[in-house]
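User: For documentation purposes, I need each entry recorded in a consistent format: the amino acid sequence on its own, followed directly by the corresponding structure tokens. There are two entries in this batch. Please keep commentary to a minimum and don't merge the entries.

Assistant: Recorded as requested. Entry 1:
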Amino acid sequence: MKSIFVFIFVVVSFLSYSAELKLPSVVGSHMVLQQKTKVAVWGWAKPGANVSVKTSWDKKVNKTAVNSDGKWKLSIVTPVAGGPYEITIKADTTIRLEDILIGEVWICSGQSNMQMPINGIPSQPVNGSNDVIAHAHNNNIRLFTVKRDLKIKPQDNCAGIWKVASPRSVANFSAVGYFFGQYLEEVLRVPIGLISTNWGGTPAESWTDEATLQREFKEFDLSILNTDKVTAQSPAVLFNCMIHPLLNYTIRGVIWYQGESNAANPTQYEKLFPTMINNW
């Protein structure tokens, strides 16, 4: 009888923990939200619970209910660029997001040319990187790097955290992405949020979802997704866990540095690349 009681206690405790208010990693303190538009805030909580989201820039409280799957999402209106602000999210518990800026948000994706960090890689340094890193104190630029991973099914979350631009955070961030964001910040004089999600040596089909490939490109062998032979070059596997978790996040646009891994089939890429863009 004692062992049965312990088993029930463990199960109930797990269910209670899993129903707590949670947010995806890309919605967090230090993030940048796209200015002058409606942006999504979403997460998980106990099914049927009420969720409220209060924004410090207008003091408005937005409310929604958690669906039967434990998911919730609502839209909030963002002002002109500025900050810092706070967002308070309440359900069974309270989460306060701090140091939020409003500005321009861009995704930086592709293969190795986008992946290469400012501090370079062995035998491939980045010209002038030491000076850039040493002077990379800029509270107006925020960086989020999606951890490289692959999945055979779409994921709702990814690993990553928003960081303020500093010598430590900039050194390992995409060089192309950071220089692009630095230029935007200098010219536009607004906060810039950069989301780096890339993987060297990967083809565009890895970044496109399975349903789209199945419909538009019969030549791709999607049966590999049902085997243990999946790699970063397999169709859809990077879209599933490095793009799908970001789809709710409102952005200005994407910079893309890729193509070498599809160079052997330029005719196919001519169709594949715009298909991937429309898919995103």
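Entry 2:
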Amino acid sequence: MVKRGKIGQARHDNKVRSELEKLVGEGFRVWADLPGRTRPPKVGGVIPDIYARKGNKLIIEEIETPSTKKSDENQQQKLKKGTKEKGGIFKIKMAK
């Protein structure tokens, strides 16, 4: 896993906040891996950036930056598999 620089981390966190607000607006209960928020539960042994639930619908999102897109592929595969096992939808979103 590659460590993000300050600018990359800020872009990542801004995208997580943006996705959080969008999903809350759609009526989801959302957990986000951000300072000051309740961390999402592990999925496939990994804590995702976003864990959103509305009724029986589950959405797991992982936010990547250009510096982490390739280096975090193992983590992405674990999340994808874990989400599938829970009957959810897994998405990878890019922070630019």
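Summary note for entry 2:
Strands lie at 29-32, 50-54, 57-64, 89-94.
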